[in-house]
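mind reviewing both lines:
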Amino acid sequence: MKNPCSRGKQGLWAAIMVGTLVMLLAGGALASSGEEHGPKGWVATDTYRVMNFAVLAIGLFLILRKPVANALGERIKGIREQLSELEEKKTAAEKSLAEYNERLSMLDSEAQQIVAGYVQQGQDAKKRILAEAQEAAAKFEEQAKRNIESEFKQAKLQLQTEVLEKSLAQAEALIKGNITTDDQEKLVDEYLEKVVA
């Protein structure tokens, strides 16, 4: 590949040469058509004018050659840098685009994984809550059984006490109604024998 800078210098030289040639021809044409009543053709002053122009053009060329070449070289260098920066940006943008496309393609699977994770967490929480509820229900049931048994024992004891009291009251009433003085004396004698013995 040729160096663009050398191509630019060749193009500059060609442009200067073409410009000089055009000015020479234009100057000759103007000089020859300038006088209508005088002699036609090339005059000595025309030669001096062309020579002056050529000297001026060559002087300008020699003076402006390096600054113009430097300016064009800097411009070429700047364009190259811009192109390389744009290539880097393009590469980075393509890389980012590829990453975003990959993320977008993975987005559905990630969403499904997230939903599946939440569903699993919900099921785990449900199992845990049910286990805790069953454990609490078992505790409440056991406590209720203990309370019922305690109350049943108290009620049974109270009932036994009431039955005993009523039985004693009825037995006392029966004894009072059926016992005679002979029976009382006999009971006292038996008691005394037991105590003495």
In short: The chain has a mean pLDDT of 80. The helical segments are 4-33, 44-178, 181-196. Residues 146-196 form one domain. The chain is about 90% helix and 0% strand.
